[in-house]
Amino acid sequence: MSTVAETNIKPTPEHGTRPGASIRSRLQDALPKIVLAPSFAITVVFVYGFILWTVYLSFTNSKTFPSYAITGSRAYQRLWRWTFESDPPSSWYTSITNMGIFGFLYIFICLALGLFLAILLDQKIRGEGMLRPIYLYPMALSFIVTGVAWKWFLDPGLGLEQTLHQWGWTSFHFDWIKNKDFVIYTVVIAGVWQASGFIMAMFLAGLRGIDGEIMKAAQIDGATTFQLYRRIVIPLLRPVFLSAFIVLAHLAIKSYDLVVALTSGGPGGSAWLPSNFMYEYTFKRNEMAVGSASAVIMLMTITAIIVPYLYSELRERPR
Amino acid sequence: MLRKLLIGTALGSGLAFAAHAQDVKEVEMLHWWTSGGEAAALNVLKEDLAKQGFAWKDVPVAGGGGDAAMTALKAMVAAGNYPTASQMLGYTVLDYAEAGVMGDLTETAVKEGWDKSVPAALQKFSVYDGKWVAAPVNVHSVNWLWINKAVMDKIGGTEPKTFDDFVALLDKAKAAGVIPLALGGQNWQEATMFDSVVLSTGGPEFYKKAFNDLDEESLKSDTMKKSFDNLAKLVTYVDPNFSGRDWNLATAMVIKGDALVQVMGDWAKGEFNAAKKTPGTDFLCYRFPGTDGSVVYNSDMFGMFDVPDDRKAAQAALATATLSKSFQSAFNVVKGSVPARTDVPDTDFDACGKKGIADLKAANEGGTLFGSLAQGYGAPPAVANAYKDVVSKFVHGQIKTSDEAVTELVNAIEDAK
């Protein structure tokens, strides 16, 4: 620390001639760039480089191993055809409809539940310090643990249904996890359970950052509690919504392991998400081109949703 | 401290360099036999090699399981860092051989007489372009019934000889309040059962044409429709909670007497053995009704890679030890499968193993030894998985009728070819 201060304050002759000082100052200017360079290079190669690589592979006829000759868009043609095969559903059709259902419900319920819990916790209640970690804790578990725990809990012969039957409520029936039409909703349940506490913590931090004076002013103006939240608090939380949405969206898209641990694909593959589809085709079925094409489509879909949203949110900030 | 470390490293690398100058007395092995019984079985091989002075080195696989191991293998091969050998299944061996990374064991094979002792159907996967590239470790067969004897006695059942007998037997179990059929509702288990159903419904010729040759006429024939009808009939005898269940849990239902029978490959016997049950007194093994005389197989193989010359001696020793009669017997007694060569004495095997060995021999000679499509020995993985999709969607109701199932099957296989 002291050396830095010294150099800054006294560019004196005994510390060296002008070129020496300029090397030092130039080095200081360049230091952030030098420090960032490795991670920048790694990101360029291992994220963007491999995205391009995947795009390239999707136009080849790669099977078990990558092949380098471009052979056209057969992989995309197959995916396009499968997109409309709804009866009986093709695996790709199942995957993308599931992504729609799961993505929408997961993000929406997490946001709603997280906000609701945060508002409740924000009422200056006693024992908040103890309650907060309880809600937050599921986020510390991996998807695999969450998946296995919920698999046992939802299994009709093992978990909830069995227990309630033993307690005497024999008409109780809950077999969603075994039902091809409902299995995707069990993935939503487990996912929401895991993430909503974390979203609550984000909203809670946002709520704490709101100026108390504004709230008081609104109350003096005679706003009801509902109006207070509806008109003032929630609009002020907009940046938190953005962060929460981005966190949830990427969790939703990558929740491959949750599906595997919870349902091992579901009856007849009915719980697949596009990530499961991609893994299955690339590594198990040795159809690397189709797997790559599905990955590219996933990426484009995400981009189509996230980029306009980011653009509109971030553009308004400076104003 | 630092200096000591440096000296140590220098010494270490010096030693390693010295060792490289001559043959490397080590086999590097990629496999996923890590559970109790399988690990014990593999230990026999490790000890055989240790006696000849070869060290054994496992390639670590994160997460275990065949999928993870295959992903690890792909990465190793892509990096040019071949293991001495890897556990491999069916078409994977041929894929790698086509990519030109497999070694050549022909010299060892000729010396040991593998051509005559290993069933011809297996050689389709272990010989590529006239060269031996893999050493088969065992032969599993999938057309078995595993029956709890106590339950069988209670309901007064006898060995079913035809599919109709089988349905009658399941009815008896149902009437007695036992779950008739233990099934795990995962696609490979359903498809494995369907392999047997097709063989039983259409006979050996039909099975071969449809599931090994992928003949379109057979795939969309009425016999195939009948097979799907029969599968649908069997599915009515499972408990409502079957979907997603692991195969060994289904076996446990039979062991405990909750269920009468499971249709599963002979690896299920390992579970019975682990539970200290004896064939004949505690449980019964029959061929799937109507499939006696034929064997639908899959096989574990050790694929041998094109390793540097200084490692070839160790590789040859591994291959020789793998197909030695003593190891074949010792390993397969524990694993539940039967030896991959037909000239191994069956003295150490239990009743089911003896039957398995005799059946394999007869099927090999009679030309009724067929690759299991569900287990990836009937067709390449893309086709096999498309097949599993269709069967599983049929079992779980996404595909509603046998007609639709047959159409889907033909399309899916055509698509994947």
Tell me what the structure shows:
The complex is a heterodimer of chains A (319) and B (417). Chain A is mainly α and 319 residues long. Chain A folds into two domains: 2-58; 89-316, MetI-like fold (Orthogonal Bundle). Chain A has helices spanning 2-9, 18-58, 74-83, 91-121, 128-136, 143-154, 160-166, 183-208, 212-220, 225-236, 238-253, 256-263, 274-284, 288-316. Chain A is flat and about 70 Å long. Chain B has two domains: 24-140 and 298-364, Periplasmic binding protein-like II (D-Maltodextrin-Binding Protein, domain 2, 3-Layer(aba) Sandwich), CATH 3.40.190; 141-296 and 371-416, D-Maltodextrin-Binding Protein, domain 2, CATH 3.40.190.10. In chain B, strands 2-1-3-13-6 form a five-stranded mixed β-sheet, sandwiched between helices. In chain B, strands 14-7-12-15 form a four-stranded mixed β-sheet. In chain B, strands 9-10-8-11 form a four-stranded mixed β-sheet. In chain B, helix 10 crosses helix 18 (381-395). The chains are: A mainly alpha (319), B alpha/beta (417).
**Do you know the CATH architecture of the largest domain in chain B?**
3-Layer(aba) Sandwich
How would you state the average pLDDT of chain A, rounded? 86
Oligomer: heterodimer
CATH topology-level fold name of the largest domain in chain B = D-Maltodextrin-Binding Protein, domain 2
Number of continuous helical runs of chain A: 14
Low-confidence stretches of chain A: 1-16
CATH architecture of the largest domain in chain A: Orthogonal Bundle
Q: In angstroms, what is the radius of gyration of chain A?
A: 26 Å
Question: What overall geometry of chain A do the principal axes of the alpha carbons give?
Answer: flat
